[in-house]
């Protein structure tokens, strides 16, 4: 009598192997997507730092100076450094912009009630038709001695 696998056993083993392979491929694609997004967020954090160096809150003399319109990351670099961006850095920062906006600048009652606390939103946006789109926001609260 010959011993071997029946067709049913082979089919069940193939299904189990296929499900396992599918699960592994799915988890690999998710981890790849996470790695790609983490590079976007890491660059966004660098752009936030560039914006903070180019337009520091300590230098703000008037409440109107809190707001900074959307500025390209490459322009932020030029504002803080005498060195030119390398080609790799230009590609890295391409499509990234930085913006700062005071959320309670014109609300004197609110600022007085909070004892001179201001809330500022810093937004970094990125993306183009090749990379997709995204943005990252950070909120900063700082105190200014009332006048």
Set out the fold topology.
Elements: H1 7-54, E1 68-72, H2 73-80, H3 87-93, E2 97-102, H4 108-113, E3 117-128, E4 132-143
Antiparallel strand pairs: 1-2, 2-3, 3-4
Characterization of this structure:
The chain has helices spanning 7-54, 73-80, 87-93, 108-113, and strands spanning 68-72, 97-102, 117-128, 132-143. α1 crosses α2. The termini are far apart. It is 47% helix and 24% strand. The protein has 147 residues and is of the alpha+beta class. The chain has one domain.
What is shown here, in short?
The chain has 4 helices and 4 strands; from the N terminus they run H-E-H-H-E-H-E-E. It is α+β, with helices and mostly antiparallel strands and 147 residues long. A 4-stranded antiparallel sheet has the order 1-2-3-4.
**What's the helix count?**
4
Major sheet strand order: 1-2-3-4
Instruction: Give the CA-CA distance, first to last residue.
Output: 100 Å
Mean pLDDT: 86
Helical fraction? 40-55%
Query: What's the number of structural domains?
Result: 1
Instruction: Tell me the strand percentage band.
Output: 15-25%
């Amino acid at each position: 009598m010959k011993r071997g696998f029946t067709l049913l056993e082979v089919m069940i083993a193939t299904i189990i192997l296929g499900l396992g392979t599918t699960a592994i491929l799915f988890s690999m694609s998710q981890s790849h997507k996470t790695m790609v997004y983490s590079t976007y967020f890491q660059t966004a954090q660098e752009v936030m730092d560039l914006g903070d160096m180019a337009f520091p809150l300590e230098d703000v003399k008037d409440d109107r100076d809190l707001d900074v319109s959307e500025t390209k990351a490459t322009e932020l670099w030029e504002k803080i450094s005498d060195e030119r961006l390398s080609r790799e850095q230009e590609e890295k920062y391409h499509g990234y912009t930085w913006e700062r906006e005071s959320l309670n600048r014109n609300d004197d009652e609110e600022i007085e009630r909070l004892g001179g606390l201001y809330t500022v939103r810093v937004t970094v946006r990125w993306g183009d038709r090749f990379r997709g789109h995204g943005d990252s926001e950070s909120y900063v609260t700082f105190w200014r001695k009332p006048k």
